[in-house]
Amino acid sequence: MSQIRLIFLFVLAVFALVITGYLLNPDTSTFELLLLLLLCGGGTAIVYGYDFAQLKRSGYNDLISNVLNSPVETLFYFIFVVFIAPLSFFYLSSFRVNLLLVICLLGLLYSMPFNYQGKRMKLKHLVFVKNTFIGFSWGALILVGAGAMDAIEIIAFFLFVSFQVVVGSMIRDLSDVEKDAKDHVATLPVKFGIPKTIQILHFLNIISLIPLAFVAFSQGILLMLPVFTWRVLVIWRVSKDHCAIHWTQTCNILTCVIIGVAMAMFKLNL
Q1: How far is CA 104 from CA 37, 46, 101, 116, in A?
Q2: Is 199 within a domain?
Q3: Cβ-count burial of 22 within 10 angstroms (0-12 exposed, 13-18 middle, 19+ buried)?
Q4: What phi, psi does 119 have (nearest 5°)?
Q5: pLDDT digits (tens, 9 = 90+) for 138-149
């Protein structure tokens, strides 16, 4: 899959989750919502749009040179740094800004190397840690969109989405199992094997439904059924071919979009 297509899917998923949170607590002006989407979408494009392994090898001068040599990238970074980021700090609530900073901090923390028993490790190389960090960081976008976490409904959907993203992260690990095993990265498929991982994915998909027991029955069912069914289909197809990029990447990431569409349909009474 091309990097541009992958970035597009991630940005689309971010938009869907932020809007889902907004629909749970639509006490936000149109301008604030637009600014929030630009901030989250732009930040996602920056994080996933550059090879940080390459950055480590070539240095920041190479990054700056690449950006300056591309008028489109130059304009994008200029607008993001000069306008979007400062406006966000000024107009968005401290809750949203601080939560986004925590999400960024978690992303840095789980990627930072540390020494453990004489070995150089990263938290993301530990079983479940990487997936948990990713799941709850992306799930927190529900809280960012809602702008609060003072209602049981908001917390329930935050937990539901977090579990779903954990499942999605593990599905993506399936396509890299051979590479991760070679690099001694202890992902779930490497540790337990593909068949066992498939069983765990189905179990976590079921577990993700538990938080929805605390929301209105009709709303929970509407969101639960399409997302749960979609996950079952994706996991089943991946069990047949764990290298199928269409299912491990595209269809997997689009789960967030399904969540957003289901929430929009319910709130708009469609």
Answers
A1: 16, 12, 5, 24
A2: yes
A3: buried
A4: -115, 145
A5: 999 999 999 999
Residue 260 inside a domain? The answer is: yes
Rounded Cα distance between 233 and 236, Å, is 5
CB-hemisphere CA count at 13 Å for 2? 3
Enter the tokens of residue 31.
């301008």
Question: How many domains does one find in the chain?
Answer: 1
* pTM reported for the whole predicted model: 0.87
Q: What is the extent of the structural domain holding 147?
A: 3-49+93-267
Residue 14 lies in a domain: yes
25 pLDDT exceeds 50?
yes
> Secondary structure of the chain in the HEC alphabet?
CCHHHHHHHHHHHHHHHHHHHHHHCCCCCHHHHHHHHHHHHHHHHHHHHCCHHHHHHHCHHHHHHHHHCCHHHHHHHHHHHHHHHHHHHHHCCHHHHHHHHHHHHHHHHHHCEEEECCEEEEHHHCCCHHHHHHHHHHHHHHHHHHCCCCCHHHHHHHHHHHHHHHHHHHHHHHCCHHHHHHCCCCCHHHHHCHHHHHHHHHHHHHHCCHHHHHCCHHHHHHHHHHHHHHHHHHHHHHHHCCCCHHHHHHHHHCHHHHHHHHHHHHHCCC
pLDDT tens track for 177-186: 888 777 777 7
Distance between CA atoms of 187 and 197, rounded to whole angstroms? Answer: 10
- For residues 262 and 222, the answer to whether their CB atoms sit within 8 Å is yes
The answer as to whether 71 is a domain residue is no
Q: Which residue has the tokens 């190397």?
A: 113
